[in-house]
Design goal:
It contains eleven helices and eleven strands. The chain is α+β, with helices and mostly antiparallel strands. The mean pLDDT is 89.
């Protein structure tokens, strides 16, 4: 059981306690599925919080929203002030990377979990924090030493600093749609970032190379140098950066998580290190909790939890039958146990 504010409800949570007014009149009994159209009416009654069943609120985030917001504001403040000041202020991001590492390590059995990573619209600050968390998780599963993980974190927070020296807005714009001049400017940003920091003593060579090589690919199709011999730490960031760019629409059309997963699989051992892709996909849910999907039997369902080692076979709750009629009560299907049902389509 978990307590939630009304503004935190997404709809389809299940009440763990009866919902009552101030004079103890039962509005909704325990076990009621809270539909979205109920929420506004509950607010009108002056009820601010409800208790819902925890298994129906199973989304797992790498960084809690309040922690992510706090870190984002700090990263934004440092990077924006850097435009007008000097590189010493950027050294503060070294502490921020350690803060992210410590926060992740506080999660119990962090390397054993499957995380719900959602597609979203994001700015460069949020993107940098997210790939920092993704790369740290990947490095932990690869059993890389703590100092190198720190260097990876710092490199991730600064990897796109070169974009601040360009004049173009690349959010939700596909690189392939850029004209020749815009594309050339975009492809210079790793060099801009590296050139800014290459002579700094407080930042390691690992972090500097992440800034320079984060768009390189194993087959030489990346940029700006088209190298194929890419350091391990940079190969980790290559995977995490490509995935997060796709799901938040930075320099490309924003896609669903399952599409980004398929992209990584398609270019495994071609553009991306196959072992790192495998590691990355062990903790990435193909269908995040809360996603609405259509099954092969035509039913509308919601993903409510994940199955470890079967990231494409989550637990779902059926909301409507194949004829579009509401399903009353709980109809839960564990796709690992029910083999004839699978997810056919993800709704926008």
């Amino acid at each position: 059981m978990i307590r939630k504010r009304l503004d935190e409800l997404q709809g389809n949570e299940v009440l763990a306690r009866p919902l009552m007014t101030w004079d103890y009149q039962v509005v909704l009994p325990e076990g009621t599925v809270i539909r979205k159209d109920y929420i506004e009416k509950i607010v009108e009654l002056g009820i601010l919080e409800v208790y819902v069943r925890e298994e129906q609120s199973s989304e797992i985030a790498i960084l809690k929203s309040d922690m992510e917001d706090s870190i984002r504001e700090k990263v934004k403040d440092i990077l924006e002030r850097h435009t007008y000041h000097n590189n010493q202020e950027l050294e503060e991001l070294s502490k921020t990377a350690d803060n992210i590492i410590s926060t992740i390590l506080e999660e119990e059995q962090v390397v054993e979990k499957v995380f719900d990573i959602r597609e979203r619209s994001a700015d460069l600050y949020e993107h940098s924090i997210n790939i920092c968390a993704l790369a740290i998780l990947t490095a932990l599963k690869l059993e890389i030493d703590r100092q190198t993980i720190h260097d990876i974190g710092v490199g991730c927070l600064l990897h796109d600093i070169g974009l601040r020296y360009t004049t173009l807005n690349f959010n939700e714009k596909n690189v392939e749609s850029l004209n020749e001049q815009e594309l050339a400017e975009f492809k210079k940003h790793p060099v801009y970032g590296y050139s800014t920091l290459k002579d700094e003593n407080w930042i390691s060579d690992v972090s500097k190379y992440i800034i320079l090589y984060h768009h390189e690919r194993l087959d030489g199709s990346g940029f700006p140098l088209h190298i194929k011999n890419i350091p391990l730490e940079c190969r980790i960031v290559n995977v995490c950066d490509a995935f997060d760019e796709m799901i938040c629409g930075i320099a490309c059309r924003r896609t669903k998580v399952y599409e980004a997963v398929e992209y990584l699989k398609s270019f495994q051992n071609i553009k991306f290190d196959g072992k790192i892709v495998d590691i990355f996909l062990t903790f990435t849910a193909v269908y995040p909790a809360g996603s609405q999907v259509i099954t092969n039997e035509g039913e509308l369902a919601e993903v409510i939890s994940q199955n470890k080692a079967f990231q494409d076979r989550p637990v779902i709750r059926i909301l409507k039958d194949k004829d579009g009629k509401d399903v009353h009560g709980k109809k839960i299907i564990d796709l690992v146990k029910v083999h004839h049902v699978f997810i056919d389509k993800v709704l926008e």
